[in-house]
Amino acid sequence: MSLALDPAAQDLLFREARTANTFTDEPVTDEQVQAIYDLVKYGPTAFNQSPLRITLVRSPEARERLVQHMAEGNRPKTATAPLVAILSADNEFHEELPQLFPHFPQAKDVFFGERAARENAAGLNAALQAAYFIIGVRAAGLAAGPMTGLDFEGVRKEFLDDDHTPLMVVNIGKPGEDAWFPRSPRLAFDDVVTTV
Fold first, then answer.
1. C-alpha to C-alpha distance for 109 and 144, rounded to whole angstroms
2. pLDDT, tens digit, for every residue of 59-78?
3. Helix, coil or strand: residue 56
4. Rounded to the nearest 5 degrees, what angle is found at the Cα of 56, between the Cα atoms of 82 and 170?
5. Exposed (0-12), middle (13-18) or buried (19+): which is 66, by Cβ within 10 Å?
C-alpha cells in the first residue's frame, strides 16, 4: 500500500531529512517562522491544550547568553545557525483552555487544577508539538538541528520563568557544508510493532 503523500514530500519530511550540524548564513525570516507555525498549530494535543511555547533567539546578545548554556559540542552549531528556537512547555497552559476547548471549559479546573497534573500534561503535549515543529521546519525547506545537550535550568533562568519548562533548542536554517553525520540505523518494523 502506498502513502497518500507524494514521494517527494515524504523524502523532504522524513527519508532525506536530517539533523543539520552546519548552516549557511541565509537568514530565516519571521514570515517563514509564521508559515511554519500556521501549519503545525493543527497537530493534535490532548484537550487541544497546545502548551508549546517558542522563544526565537535572534539578537547577538541573546545568542551569546544561550551559547553559554549549551553543551560544549553544541556551542558552535548554536553560535552560527541563522535562527535558534528554544522550545518550552507552558505549565500554565490551562488558562487558555476555555478558548481552546470551548465545549468543555471546565477542563481547566477539573483535569488541570493541580500543578503536577499540568506539568505532566504540558511536557508530553509540548513534546508532541515540538515534533510537529521540526516537521514544519522541514516543510519550509529548511533544516532543523534539535538538541537536548544543554543546561536546562540555566536556559530556564536566562530566558523563561518558573511556569515554563525548556524541552530543547532547535537550530534552524539552510544546511551548510558537511551538515550531516552519517545516518544512524533504524529499527525494523517487526522490532517495533506488536500485534495482540
1. 36
2. 999 999 999 999 999 999 99
3. strand
4. 65
5. buried
